[in-house]
Amino acid sequence: MSEARRFLLMQAGSRRYAVPLEQVAEVSELRILSPVPRAPVWCLGATRSAGVVAAVVDLAWYLGEEPEPAPEKLVVLDLRIGGLALQVGPVASVVLEAPVRLEQDNYGTWLMTPDTKAELLDAVELVQEVSAAMAR
Fold it and tell me: What is the CATH number of the domain that holds 40?
């Protein structure tokens, strides 16, 4: 029998997102960041997590919205995937896959709960996209 997957639900700008919990290293309070020269505006700086330097990206701003109006948390992605932390608004909860369903459409994959609909993010894809965008 396979273990039920768990997801971290969070808000960034006006949208809700979910990330598989196994792709998250930590959720922390906001911290003072080190500047990253010539980084895009949505890259807020860098921080250390478990001895690894991680770029901090305002998730809402990166995804085309206004900068996060009320940043609350840093979601550090699994450092084996890449050094990336997401500045987000509220982190709502952790949910199990069992009581919710995943739906896919032309815009992406969605985690549907009785209370909310959240876009499912894949940390591997996100790290690759952000890395490519920062290299431009």
Answer: 2.40.50.180
Please state the rounded mean pLDDT for residues 115-121.
92
Q: In whole angstroms, give the CA distance from residue 113 to residue 99.
A: 7
Q: Which domain holds residue 59?
A: 6-135
Strands 15-20 and 24-29: unpaired
Answer yes or no: is 42 within a domain: yes
Could you tell me if 61 and 78 are in contact, meaning their C-beta atoms sit under 8 angstroms apart? no
Q: State yes or no: pLDDT of 28 exceeds 90.
A: yes
Domain count, the chain: 1
pLDDT > 80? residue 112: yes
- pTM (predicted TM-score): 0.91
**Dist. CA 24–CA 96, nearest whole Å:** 15
For residue 47, is it within any domain?
yes
Which whole-number Å values give the CA distances from 8 to 40, 104, 105, 122, in the listed order?
Answer: 26, 18, 21, 12
**Any domain includes 56:** yes
Say how far apart CA 122 and CA 48 lie, in whole Å. Answer: 22
